[in-house]
Amino acid sequence: xxxxxxxxxxxxxxxxxxxxxxxxxxxxxxxxxxxxxxxxxxxxxxxxxxxxxxxxxxxxxxxxxxxxxxxxxxxxxxxxxxxxxxxxxxxxxxxxxxxxxxxxxxxxxxxxxxxxxxxxxxxxxxxxxxxxxxxxxxxxxxxxxxxxxxx
Length: 151
Fold this sequence. Notes:
By secondary structure, the chain is mainly alpha-helical. Helix content is 44%, strand content 9%. It has helices at 52-59, 89-95, 97-118, 120-127, 129-150; strands at 62-68, 74-80. Helix 2 (89-95) packs across helix 3 (97-118). The protein is elongated, with a radius of gyration of 27 Å.
């Protein structure tokens, strides 16, 4: 077998394959990362894994992650990876209750900002210092009332 028949990592690439296997372009970098916090005891050769899904099913990668909340406390969660989509923003957020709460807060803030920018009456009221103070006092009163009902 000639050296030219081998691809990245020394894998044999038959020329009559039914699927096209493209080389990584010269201007790209291939990153390989350990998917679990535990170091492997010894290298393991696993044969018969033909798809990415089978690799994820066999290794079942997961990672313990610690997030910091607004008060500086730590929130620990376990992220499990079952497919490549789990590595993206949506996949990670879907697994984390903490990140889902943060995303909901962000969406609420964005809606409130949009509301403030489009509501001319509210903009005029906030421009007047006395009206602004009364509005903030009313909001604070509502917050206290909501907190009292949650307790």
